[in-house]
Guanylate kinase 1
Amino acid sequence: MGKASAFLIDDLLNGVQNGVLKSKGCETATTIRDRTYVISGGDDALALEVQIFDKAANKRIIPTVLGTKPMPGKGHSAIQLDENKILILKKGSTSDDCIWFLEVDSTYVREQKKKLDTEVVAWSKGMEGNADMQIVISGPSGVGKGTLISMLKDEFPSMFGFSVSHTTRAPRIGEEDGVHYHFTDKNVMEQEIKDGKFLEFASVHGNLYGTSIEAVEVVADAGKRCILDIDVQGARSVRASALDAIFIFICPPSMEELEKRLRARGTDAEEQVLKRLRNAKTEIQQGEKSDIFDHILYNDKLEDCYKKLKELLGLKGNVTTKQKSASHGIDLPVDHSVSKINDKIVITCGTPEHGNESKNFRIVLNVSALKGGAPGRTRGIEVYDVISFSDGLNGMKLPN
Ligand SMILES: Nc1ncnc2c1ncn2[C@@H]1O[C@H](COP(=O)(O)OP(=O)(O)OP(=O)(O)O)[C@@H](O)[C@H]1O
Ligand SMILES: Nc1nc2c(ncn2[C@@H]2O[C@H](COP(=O)(O)O)[C@@H](O)[C@H]2O)c(=O)[nH]1
């Protein structure tokens, strides 16, 4: 809930720089510098489409659209947030699917333009609040990463979630699609990698493995810290990405013990066991020497290693699960207009002149501390409770 304010909404409305942009049917046009971004569709079954009109070049451009597109709703409103992105508010959508960003010139978009040698825009879903630091756990096959992660999830079910990776390897007995992995074909996964859906990917022990951006985001959306169980190559890629994470490498007490564990697990054919043991030597060298990892843990006695892992994650002693502040969400009516006032977005709902007063209210979004962005979520939005103006506009205050 936003606190009472230091300034008046009417003073601010008089000074709006970007103007109020009302949605026109199911099409909006937002001009940033020489370019007008026309976003259309979003009603019935149509996904939102983007076209660019470049005034300087006098041409229409159909860009490559990256990121997950918003699902159809009942239309949308759009307003320029800054030089790099447009804020989209979906009408008649669920409260957790209402705020979206179209990045038109962010760092990610510029990188992708260079890489793909084409015009690019990228969608990112807006989320209230921030995500906690994620956890990357790496180490050779059979060292006990999965065992340690299961222990954490069992002891702290509301605190930790697991990123479900994609892999081209065949499922083992007892492994479920969508639970242990998303089992997929090589050509499908390669196309999804090209489409920018993966945070990282690597060829590991002869198969393709990868963490999709969505796999991490769904865990963060649920208010949990996401644990990624990935190999050293993947950890290196995540280190170079924007994901805020703690990196932990798990080492076996000896190669003999590692071999014993791999064989005792009984999940891999002899050829795979030998391949995993060969790869383990390089992985351990890289893990111990590289600057990827913040911590190295030796998994000799399982209980000792688990205790140390908990200490690293700040779970020593009595842990009280952090109570997440309740998310307000927005239930946006079809009839609304949007204004930007400094770093606040004011959504005016209803028709104050003619309408039923009880329907008239404003929702305020604070967008001063946005984090993340395409190809993942844009977090850090604060939604202030509905401000009713049935008693007149004068004196209405915006939250600080
Ligand atoms: N400290 C330990 N002492 C003895 N056995 C262990 C220990 N930690 C794990 N194990 C056993 O070793 C085997 C391999 O563990 P686990 O499957 O967790 O490894 P992993 O690192 O996740 O492997 P992969 O990378 O192939 O998924 C399992 O049978 C597990 O029960
Ligand atoms: N780079 C990535 N590595 C991954 C991912 N998911 C799992 N892994 C690593 O692969 C090996 C083998 O796993 P297994 O299930 O076949 O035994 C293991 O060491 C994992 O850490 C991923 O998404 N990216």
About this structure: DSSP finds nine helices and 25 strands in the chain. The pocket of LQESDW3C (ligand 2) is lined by residues 141, 165, 169, 200, 202, 204-205, 209-211, 229-231, 233-234 (CB under 6 Å). The two ends are 11 Å apart (CA to CA).
